[in-house]
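[User] I have long wanted to understand how a fold can be written as tokens. Those tokens are not coordinates but codes from a learned vocabulary of shapes. Could you go through the record with me and say what the backbone is doing? Thank you; the sequence and its tokens follow:
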Amino acid sequence: MNENKDYYELLGIDKDSTKEEVKKAYRKLAKKYHPDINKTDPHAKEKFIEIKEAYDILVDPIKRKAYDQLRNNPQIFDWSDLFRTTNFNYWWEILREVHRNRTPYYKPPPEGMYI
């Protein structure tokens, strides 16, 4: 989250906007700045990426709460909500897959052991 950007201002909505209002504002701006539709403006792609970032933050209630908290008082930001909702099982599954597919090392017995 970039604390220098005001996502509410970027989407043109109020701080009290509902999820539906955020979606409506995002769709309107996404149509306007989509790189495939707006090929004449060289800055349309960057603007579209900023709008998408703002939408991703404001549509998710947990990320929106964290953004509002960071925006209002960055010194007392509470990271516990982000850690509580993070799915660490995803990373454990990746590690399990990596270690599951390893072939076990087989060391043959030394020469002359079974005479």
